[in-house]
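User: Can you recover a sequence for this backbone? Please restate the input before giving your answer.

Assistant: Of course. Working from this structure:
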């Protein structure tokens, strides 16, 4: 079949991608607008088949490092993962876009499933279709990326089940933790835009304690605030005696609710009240009430071993009873291999050497 990938010229990008398989909030118009504030430029493309029917789409973000372009299509391309011809046609279109200027790389990380369960465990399975799409990428010269921007693996909870069945799917210990806070004075309330400074303060405190990088307040004011105003983000705050002790921030798009981030105070006595467990359960109930069918716990280890930085939080998430889902991860296409090598291998070494001298 003949395909054409053309720039999108319509006015309802979200409506278009919500009609496609595997739509994702990181492909939304609002996410593109937010990234433009941070220095990226968003461009949108649609794949048409021979009958001029839409088969797929992709929003591509571009930023420049001097004269060189860096391109990234988060959670794209959006296309049926069983339609291998359309998937490859979108790859061809993305490759052409990357060749139009001096481009270091174009990165994609579609939600293509390559397996479920923890490798080596009895219930683990591989997905032949997803593995075949990985083979297509390799055949076309794409490389599995050393820079995985989004989480490669995650845990998905099916919200079409009743609340009783969702609770039964958890471990007995997790069920006790979920109910513990409510019996010991923890309350949950919805956040408003006025709570953005509070959400940031708790998040920055958590980042400092756990050693992950946080950006300035203005970054999250744009990100969380823009999506909250659009009705695509929602935050829940846990309080003890009227004092905020933890929060979760949820992103909503289509039928998926994404647990994007969470934070908590460092007070061990407060943490013994299990506010984080209670928050996750209330988040699932909120998402279910909004009509979502999937709750994405957003993140599991790349390598399922205790040395992985996600191992501790993985244990917390796994006990909620979802399905461990492994994806193909991020892949890079380098239209000019010498530039890619310079940027990804030689330049980091040079910068490290300069830092050591300094």
């Amino acid at each position: 079949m003949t395909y054409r990938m053309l720039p999108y010229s319509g006015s309802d990008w979200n409506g278009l991608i919500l009609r496609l398989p595997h739509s994702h909030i990181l492909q939304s118009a609002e996410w593109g607008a937010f990234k433009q504030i941070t220095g990226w430029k968003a461009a949108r493309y649609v794949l048409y088949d021979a009958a001029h029917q839409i088969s797929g789409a992709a929003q591509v973000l571009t930023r420049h490092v001097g004269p060189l372009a860096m391109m990234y299509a988060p959670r794209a391309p959006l296309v049926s993962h069983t339609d291998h011809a359309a998937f490859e046609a979108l790859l061809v279109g993305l490759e052409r876009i990357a060749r139009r200027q001096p481009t270091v790389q174009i990165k994609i990380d579609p939600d293509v499933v390559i397996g479920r369960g923890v490798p080596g465990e009895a219930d683990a399975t591989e997905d032949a279709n997803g593995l075949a799409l990985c083979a297509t990428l390799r055949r076309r010269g794409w490389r599995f990326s050393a820079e995985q921007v989004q989480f490669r693996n995650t845990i998905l909870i099916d919200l079409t089940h009743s609340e009783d069945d969702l609770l039964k799917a958890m471990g007995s210990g997790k069920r006790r933790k979920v109910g513990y806070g409510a019996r010991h004075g923890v309350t949950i309330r919805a956040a408003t835009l006025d709570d953005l400074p509070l959400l940031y303060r708790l998040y920055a405190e958590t980042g400092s304690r756990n050693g992950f990088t946080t950006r300035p307040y203005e970054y999250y004011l744009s990100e969380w605030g823009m999506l909250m105003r659009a009705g695509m983000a929602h935050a829940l705050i846990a309080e003890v005696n009227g004092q905020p002790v933890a929060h979760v921030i949820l992103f909503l798009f289509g039928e998926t609710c994404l647990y994007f981030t969470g934070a908590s105070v460092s007070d061990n006595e407060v943490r013994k009240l299990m506010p984080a467990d209670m928050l996750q359960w209330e988040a699932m109930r909120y998402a279910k009430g909004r009509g979502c069918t999937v709750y994405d716990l957003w993140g599991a280890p790349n390598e399922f071993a205790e040395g992985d930085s996600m191992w501790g939080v993985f244990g917390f998430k796994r006990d909620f009873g979802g399905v461990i889902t492994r994806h193909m991860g991020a892949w890079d296409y380098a239209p000019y291999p010498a530039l890619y090598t310079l940027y990804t291998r030689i330049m980091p070494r040079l910068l490290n050497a300069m830092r050591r001298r300094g």
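That completes the design. The chain has twelve helices and 17 strands.
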